[in-house]
Amino acid sequence: MEETRTFADFGIHADIVAALEAHKITHPFPIQAMTLPVALDGHDIIGQAKTGTGKTLGFGIPILQRVTSPTDDGFATLEGAGKPQALAVAPTRELAVQVAQDLTRAAAGRGIRILTVYGGRAYEPQIDALNAGIEVVVGTPGRLIDLAEKGHLSLAHCRIAVLDEADEMLDLGFLPDVEKLLNMTPAGRQTMLFSATMPGAVVALARSYMTQPTHIRAISEDDSGQTVAAVEQFVFRAHAMDKVEMLARIMQARGRGLSIVFTRTKRTAAKVADELADRGFAAAAIHGDLGQGAREQALRAFRNGKVDILVATDVAARGIDVEAVTHVVNFQCPEDEKTYLHRIGRTGRAGATGVAVTFVDWDDLHRWVQINKALDLGIPDPEETYSSSPHLFSQLDIPEGTTGSLPRSSRTRAGLGAEHVEDIEGKPAGRPKGGLGNQAGRGQRKTGNRSASGGANKGESAPRAAKPRTERTTTTDGKVRRRRRRGGAANSSKTAAES
DNA sequence: AAAAAAC
User: Fold this and answer.
1) Is A451's pLDDT higher than 60?
2) Structure pTM?
3) I want to staple A367 with a disulfide (CB 3.0 to 4.6 A). Which of A333, A354, A404, A478 is the partner?
4) What does the alpha-carbon distance between residue A394 and residue A392 come to, in Å, rounded to a whole number?
5) What fold does the segment set A2-218 form as a domain?
6) Which of residues 437-456 of A touch strand B (CB under 7 A)?
7) Quick check: A214 CB within 7 A of strand B?
């Protein structure tokens, strides 16, 4: 049985096996088991597997296995020694950093030098590291090209090139840069493309950059959908002005764990983070208008659990792996079904369960209809969602007395902002087990458990917004600071206009 | 009325 094979059974270097074991990674996930033999033989691969199922190591282990380390025999005589032998490109800086960290962890003891090259940071450290010599470079396109054109980075000895989130990298916005980078690498290189989403047109385009690629899809037989079954999906019809209140209630009811709130614009991300902070939640924003330092600080605070709500644009939609994320809220509908899949895939990773909630207002509606159709999610006709709908409080399982009430205006006008909730996996409507406030359960983890996610009883954790003495505020540059509480209840009935 | 990615 494939599932019972260990990494050592695949002939992986003992140092890598040991490094993986140190992180409780002993058995390959399906996408890894399927790609390893092909990738280790040097073949080109188009690898597709659902979010959170181990794609990074699917290409990371072959890279580390195939690269010649300074500690290996023959390195001294290697042509282009010290110049990158492998290149991995990602669509966002934070993802590039994360991929490099994952590779670095797996490379421990192997002596391989891994460098992250990305924008928004000083040139000197990156240039210095390149001059000192590296074996693997991970980065974002702009800075990679920049350093290459300035002569600091040579890709002439990259025998391996990987596009992470490949469909995004081959999309219009990235394609020219990606093409430029690939053209800097040698013709005979091994090319590997990975993503959870691989439209047929992208596969066709991808083939023009590859040599007889093997298309590998790790998808279980009993499962035709693209969403991760462990992510329980909800949809709320909402008025724009009620969204913040709805979000606050979900955040209060959700139990312990981390949440990512996605918006479609940078401005809304900043605003929602502010609104949550005003209500006493520990929230931080991350989006492209922030300085790189603020971006990474926000993500770091989130990973630490110092901030338990990350309000993000789609900069955080792809690849970002934070184990303790139990809830994803689409405050605004994503642009397309691919983005929807990637966003909700920030939870339910590596065997864990998660909850995804999508708010749909008039502005979102055409996007939602499109997503629902493309993914065949089985949501009833949108018109149906306007009629008879369960009460928001019962849907959110929040005792009314503890949370205050919604503004009278929305109650009388629209029967409470959220008019409908549907379990889109086809189970009976109403509250499924646990519901929105459920502490998402953890499956068998491949990595060590975070203490933050352990030991929480379902729905028992106190609401974060319960009248703290001080409250956190997220400023527009992403910094989180403490300040004296303003007067007034933590749960005001204040709503925010979308604008 | 999108985001992201170099300076």
Assistant:
1) no
2) 0.81
3) A333
4) 6
5) Rossmann fold (3.40.50)
6) none
7) no
